[in-house]
Queue: 2 jobs
Job 1
Amino acid sequence: MKALNRKLARDVWAMKTQVVSIALVIACGIGAFIAAFSTHDSLLSSRERYYDGARFPHVFSRVKRAPDSLLTQIRAIPGVSEVETRVVLDAQLSIEGVLPPMIARLIGVDFAHLPAMNRLTLTTGRWPAPGVKNEVVVNQRFMEARHLRLGTRATVLLNGKLERLTIVGTVLSPEYIYATRGGGMPDDEWFAVFWTDAEALAAAFDMQGAFNSVLLRLAHGASQPAVIAALDRLLDRYGSLGAVGREDQISHKIVSQEIEEQRVWGTVLPVIFLAVAAFILNVVLHRHVYAQRTEIAALKALGYDERTIARHYLGFASVIVLLGAALGLGIGDWLGRAMTGLLSDFFHFPSFEFRVLPEVALAGTGIALAAAYGGALAAIRGVVRLRAAEGLRPPSPAQFRPLLIERLGYARLATPGQRMILRNIERKPLRAAFTVIGVAGSVAILITAAFWYDSLDYFMDVQFNMVQRANVFVGFPEPVERAAIRELARLPGVKQVEGTRAIPVLLRAGHRSYRTALTGLGEDAQLQRVLDNALREHRPAPGGVLLTTRLAARLGVRAGDTLIAEMLEGRRVKAVLRVSGTVREMAGMNAYMRLDDLNRLARDGPLVSAAGLRVDRAEEPALLERLKGIPAAAVVIVTRTLLDSFRATTARNALFFTGILTAFAATIVVGVVYNNARIQLAERAWELASLRVLGMTRGEVSLLLLGELALEIVVAIPTGFVLGYWLAALIVSLIIPETFEFPLVIWPHTYLFAGAVTVAAGIASALVVRNRIDNLDLVGVLKTRE
Amino acid sequence: MPAVFSARALTKTYRMGEAEVHALRGVDLEIRPGELIVLLGPSGSGKSTLLNILGGLDTPTSGEVHFGDHDLTRASEADLTRYRREHVGFVFQFYNLIPSLTARENVALVTEIAERPMTPDEALGWVDLGERLDHFPSQLSGGEQQRVAIARAVAKRPEVLLCDEPTGALDYQTGKLVLEVIAKVNAELGTTAMVITHNAAIAGMADRVLRLGDGRIVAETRPERKLTASEISW
């Protein structure tokens, strides 16, 4: 081993605690980077593999009822390579031992010839025997969420008739990786997908020789918009809701959104970690190199050239980074597996394997090395350029000047001790700034870790306690007479009932269009309200339509403008509507009208498609039992249980991610505070020991050194709050889709938590340094010059 | 009058890497109030070790040492800190001023923790630095810095002033000026003073000269006539 390398090894060993603390910060950065990007990649590739293998369609369309004979014409659309038609219907579902009624989506399948698209993967049990009409396979998520066993009997309300079905197997489908009827809520407990005998289903719903769902796969290079347009023209007269591509397929959309979130988290957080690590490395190396200036001068005197010396110190940086990278690889692998574990509850892919991508690991290490070299080189350059003789002389005494506040005339504000602290900060403002930024960065990370759940909590609270105040929703597959909901009012425990109607609609304004629903609200609706983001209530004006601001922007209309509504249901009325106003709602792209106005427009009588019920909690079970038998009420949603299962899922995830990020942030605080204290101690050991000799106690001397850091932490915490808010806003803006205006809510306890963790980590690192202050060499200082 | 310091059979052994160094090998000593003692001796003779033990910076390996009725031999670290704070003024070869504090503030640093100190201005006036109160160490010459250090040491009105090579880093003229101040402290405040030096000429201003060699006091002399600082030269 060369002598210089031996020196490197010993320098590293001598500074081992500092080396490890910096390596840990780097490890967090590289670990988060690896975990996030590898998880992102694993998700993407698992999904693509799955889609290809299961032949996930490219285009989806729903109609009311179209004859099978149309198949040939659909096949003939240029660009279409495969077509599949089927019958899909939603029905009320009840299962013995499960109290509330649920919703089953029934998909007709010929089990003798399994469909070529959306291929099912059987995970447990068996396929129903072909031709046997009362056996079904069910999506695995539902079975797991309800803890059901194979052989469970389910009752569905098929066109007014109760049908008993036996669950014989569980399956995965690319169409229901994320199963939901709508919205982004996890409905696993409420929404079951049943694949059942096609003929029996068609017979029950009078759909023989007809279909209501079309799936297409496109030829390579085909134009999706052209195919969609042709398909829509063909299906228009059969009650088409309009075809959509994958990007609007609900499961795909949610899965993509989640994958995108992984990417955003994976980009933003590691950047902070690596930046802080580079920062610390820069300062520590600067100090290390500076402290060794006499050795560098000696090396130069011995004939070593600048390049060799610079390489020697870069070697020091490399050791730290590579140590961090090795640790980071371990952290990344572990974290990636843990995240994959959590996500595989969310995404059901037949095969979902996490692996660390070597290129991601290399890129992370490369970024960290570049950052470290960037920092180190600046430090090294200054010292290496010194002439040998200069380096051999002791440095000239540090120059200080009165504080700014003193120069301004407010001199007698502080004790000498406080002035020492303040002047040190003023003399090296960059270093103080570094501490503040580093610590503030970790405060920001702590806030970022927790704000998501604060915001979700707030969002859910607003949606379920203020916007939708009904605790039970009843949906009717076919609109019913408004009078029918009065029946509901007579059911046990029902205190209030309100009907609403939603009609699928295509809104057009000029060349812009958007597919949504026109929602009719009662004139004095209490149970479903329209609230803006300041929680002010808005109501549609008589004869006009009230639009979510985002939807108005998308259509390019303002209050007073008109737009064309093409209803996709019933008489498929086309009408010109006047925009009476816009409302900044948190969620959705909604269009509201008064219920009477909507019904008049639809020209099919006073109808409602759903009812919101305010129900006495105690009577809820009795009510749900009664609802099971009401044929028209196909869809029942109990908001409380929806909210409970949502909260349980997020609480678990919150605990995991907050835990991880708290550990990471604490690592940064310790890295920054400890290293800074060590550097300060190294630079000021002489001064502090002198004070000890003069009779200052260990506590008093510690206060002088640690007081500066304490002051910096005190400044850093509120700075971190602001930074955290910005970071949270940045993440929200990167993650949230256009259909949401996600509230950025950070509860006070989140700030408190972030501050407390930071203070605790700061104190812990201070205590370690304090130990060194206690062991200052008092005798040595009398004999040596600084 | 009782002795300020009394030491018996003091030894100090410490490890320096692999080697064991016997810095003191049995020192007996009594120092009376108001004495000005000069400790002479070559490097490694043990004079600094002795001064450190008397100043409460170090404890002996064996033997006994008392400051008045304080037992320094068995004192805890906290006791020694209190002892230094209340009774001892130190002057170092390299002044050891705090660079971030002005002359006045360097003195205030000590007066704030002392029981009945002079004011910083008074102490600095005493060393003829009344004009340079608000200068930082980097704006002062070496001699001025050393005088600030002396002002800092005497401001708390210590019983003893311990000076380790106070002129070691200074030129001739400045060095003499500093010695004058030390003599003035001794004469006018009655502070017992001990000065370590390499410079035998300084011995002329002492009441008593202790010569150390190889960890022992090898000679003790009393100059016939105590010279003033201006009378000595080297």
Note: Chain B has a mean pLDDT of 89.
Job 2
Amino acid sequence: MQEEKTRITWNHTFFAEVVDRNWVLVLTIGLCPALAVSTSVVNCISMGAAATFCLVCSSVLISILRKQIPNDVRITAFIVIIGTFVTIVDYSIQAISLNIYNALGAFISLIVVNCILLAHAEAYASKNSVMATAVNAFGTGVGFTFALLLLGVPREILGSGTIFGYNIVWEGFQTWLVMQTPVGGFFTMPLWIVLINWLRRNKSSANCGEGGCHG
Amino acid sequence: MGSSISIFISSVLVNNPLVMLFLGLCSFIGVTKKFSEAFCMGVAVTIVTFLSQQVTFALNSPLVYFGIEYLRLLVFIAVIASLVQIIDIVMKKFMPAMHKLFGIFLALITTNCLVLYVAIVQVSKAYTYMESTAFGLGTGCGYLLMMVIMAGIREQLELSNSPVIVKGTPLVLMIACFLSLMMQGFYGVGG
């Protein structure tokens, strides 16, 4: 019974957050860091890991304290909690790798104003149990990383002809320098959104054909 | 003085917060449907960025003096949140008409990346007072400029017949792509 319940939680919250309700690609929340750091795969993974860590820790803490936090000052309380974990991550990354720290720049500190974290705290963590929040926050974080990789992999391959810094393209491949600039981010992102919209439309019209239109 | 001017120009054009640095994209997509709204949001963000930049610049030296730089992020975000709250209250009391116009946007500004970005970067780049002021004002003006351009384009787009799957966010991002290309033409201006 217990096992059954856990499986349902994972199916319904984890995978739903990663695929169906991907915050970046479907809800278009938290676009700023997604577009800014996705110039290389390493940046994407470190940004995703940093954001996931902050998200899981702050959401769990908020969920534990959800009965104690007064309703009037909840946003301030959330921001202070998130800010604490972001400071931890900021100093940790600086200690682990200065290269990554310089590549991500101010965007590590800016996790604190990332809409995903605050929205998750407000909409989910402050209303649900600790276990469900942890799973959901982890799913949201993995979904964020997944979206970053969707942007980062094509941008790195086309922009500099490498992946994880290893050269993978054939001799004479003309790299698209534009993909490494901000233009590349603005170019890749709408293509993914259009693809997803198109897939969803096809799926919903297929459902309608079978008699049940779920949208 | 010369460096302040070049910082101002470069933060408006070359390092435009919206299309070059990806700061505050939520409002770029959310509040640019109407020209008047976009203009109000732009002005509100410019004012808040400037004020919070002044306050955080002043607050940084006590933080360094007491050796508690690790609290910088928390102090800055708390200052910005309370500043926005204070502006909201003062406006409500003394300028009710203005408050009606700007009120909804003010609350959104706390979580606008732009304001915190200016506060953090002026410290990490060790700008002087004049340079910081130019940086804060320039970033705000760059935001206002892009919001106005985008809202103007979007108002015209409403009349066009675009495919359903591109409507909304994808179309805005595609326009932003071209605006970003346009801003890249200024590369090198202002040093």
Note: Helices of chain A lie at 2-20, 31-37, 41-64, 74-96, 98-104, 115-125, 130-160, 182-209.
